[in-house]
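WARN retry 2 of 3 for item q-0093 after timeout on previous attempt; input resubmitted unchanged.
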Amino acid sequence: ILQRKKTTNILITTRLLSILPYFLPFLEGVESFGLKVLSDYPFHLLKFYKNTISPFMIFYVENRNVNLVTFLTLYFLIVNSKSPLSVSQFLRFNTLQALLIFLLTGILGSIFRTLPMEFRVSLYGSMICNSLLWFSIGTITYAAAKCVLGQYSKIPVISEAVRIQIESKGL
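OK item q-0093 returned
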């Protein structure tokens, strides 16, 4: 028996706008973990990084207040229920989820930086850094793909916390 998937009534513009907040945790993840292990990857990935992601990373690293301003702007204009903008619940959900992933990535990056230098440059440190990089990129890719499909992503703990906050109208 074939079951038809329910078509969503979420506008394509809302779907595409919902992807944009995920660039903040992506840049944080690449800064925290990617720059440490990037030299271990094949040359074509390094070339792709230099041609596409590097200009954003240079701007992101040189202007440290950008992440704070972007975080607060997204929170007060999109996530907050008292926002002057009328935004859909789908956009609010994905924006809050992106902000939580950003916070989680920042915390994990700070914890990794506090580890002793000998551990960070060792094989185990590289493995942990590599795993955290792919965890953050994988989570963001999954959430962005669900945005394109017009579906709510189901990331354990994070999505449930976001859903509770959005439904409670507490923000």
